[in-house]
Amino acid sequence: MTDFLHFDEYLFHLVNAGCQNRFFDWLMPLLRDKFVWLPLYVFIASFLLINYKQQGTYLFLAMVLTVGISDSVSSHVIKKNVQRLRPCRVLEAPKDMHLLVPCGSGFSFPSSHAANHFALATLLLLVLGKVFRWVKIPLVLWAISIAFAQVYVGVHYPMDVVAGALLGILIGGGVYKLVSTLNLTLKNS
User: Fold this and answer.
1) Burial degree of 149 (CB within 10 A; 0-12, 13-18, 19+)
2) pTM of this prediction?
């Protein structure tokens, strides 16, 4: 286990310091800021509710349920039991790391940002991807960019975001299975 944790620290330094550049220093803190994505969330909700009425309402509620489950499981169940410290709590900034945002008071494993965004992306990919095939790659890239940003800014180790992504995929897929019993199918309008 010690070798695995050392490897994770090595990967952290590879991303956090090795990828360091002025453009990423500006972009990565923005990518992990929930308020930056608020217009996207409002657009998706509005699009679904306006174009798909009742089915859109069900999908919107499924999105809320997905993020609620993902955030609760990652933050209140796993993090509190694993209790892995964030890299910004373990390493000495700026000597050992490149910290671009406040460290955060919670634990590190798994990344709730990664879990929540991968859960939402998975649900949307499974539902919207059937009608709008082009949306699949942007959804995956969106979730990956947020997960990568967590490591780049110094608040998570790489395995935190990988575990968060896997958790999110499982939860997003599980909620999709649950809501598919409601015959949640969208047709191109």
Assistant:
1) buried
2) 0.89
Identity of residue 4? F
Q: Locate 185 and state its tokens.
A: 């199918």
Q: Class of the 2-180 domain? A: mainly alpha
Q: Which of 117, 140, 127 is nearest to 36 (CA)?
A: 117
Is pLDDT of 18 > 90?
Answer: no
